Prior knowledge:
18 helices; 3-stranded antiparallel β-sheet
Amino acid sequence: MTTTRFAPSPTGYLHVGNLRTALMNYLIARKAGGTFILRIDDTDAERSKEEYVDAIKEDLEWLGLHWDRVERQGTRLDRYSAAADKLREIGRFYEAFETPVELDLKRKKQLNMGKPPVYDRAALALSDDERAALRAERGQGVWRFKLDHQRIEWADGVLGDISIDAASVSDPVLIRQDGQVLYTIASVVDDTEMGVTDVVRGSDHVTNTATQIQIIEALGGSVPRFAHHSLLTGPGGEALSKRLGTLALRDLRERGVQPMALLSLLARLGSSDPIEVRSEMAELIDGFEISHFGSAPTKFNVDDLFPLTAKYLQTLPLEAVQSRLDDLGVPVSLAAPFWTVIRDNIETLNDLEGWWTLCRDGADPVIEEEDAEFVAEAMTLLPEAPFDGETWGGWTAAVKAATGRKGRGLFMPLRKALTGQAHGPDMAALMPLLQVVKAR
Length: 440
């Protein structure tokens, strides 16, 4: 059975980059009728916070990405310890004691000699006595996985055939000096024991994947199908890293972005498939193909979410927004016509309040100096509220007859006088919603 996972660290809020990974794994699992695991990477006890765990779940629920079960890496430390013991037993795990300064000097020396800056495995030559002396002097060392120096190959779901020479990669540190288990081994153990069959993640993990394949094989596990999606950039090709704080999912939600607009964009962005707002998750699932995605950096513009949100809102029936209208105080008798008229003129549901305020309290009129006398005369011809669907046509006809004005010169000054805006809903439909006209 197809099993995927999303493994965020609870050290901050989810952003669009996280969501892209979560969504792809979710869609693969759902399309195959498989299992989607939410795996909280909380092995860093100092930085992990429960409030972020709750926030991650809240964001995924808001988006409709429902997981089949939750796993916590912080509760599985014994499993990682057992895996480390196995690697020691088979001679693939060794302790190293170099300081960061010493490692940096080694890298610089290798670069000056035109060699790849990889760890030189000096720790493997230490005797038991030398290791004991270093441990007494410096404390516990880090634990590195000993790579087999051969080519590591796999068929990537996005990048195609990948081949990496393990000799060009440093033996990865799997356990830090303070004993913290790192993602590289924790993820391997979890993927193996949880039966994960497909892993989609960012292209910045390609080298990490190569080392993890060897760790999986050393532990006797089955290698999942890997796919590495391109990284998102800003609209100008700039790195998103400095802007991710403004692209947190909860911030986009606060700005009125609709879940299906966000999902519709990220489920197709960077692929050969067109981006079209969908009304249901099933449509995204059915049309998703990881092989349709390219390897080139993918430009993401947050402004693209708002036209998609507007299109999605235009498809919603009254029932979907009734509670929002109730909160605004829109009378039941006006709710249906208000939503029918206004939904084509909003970008997000946050815009509803401004339109209801206009209908309920009237708008401050915008009257150009050259139109002042015309508008004043027109207002004397406006019948008293309540208005109906015939009010606008009858009134403008009367004003035209009285003033001789026609076309834009007739309609635009009257629209701006009633609504304070140059654009908006059809005035014949809007007039019955207006409770007050301030331009009188």
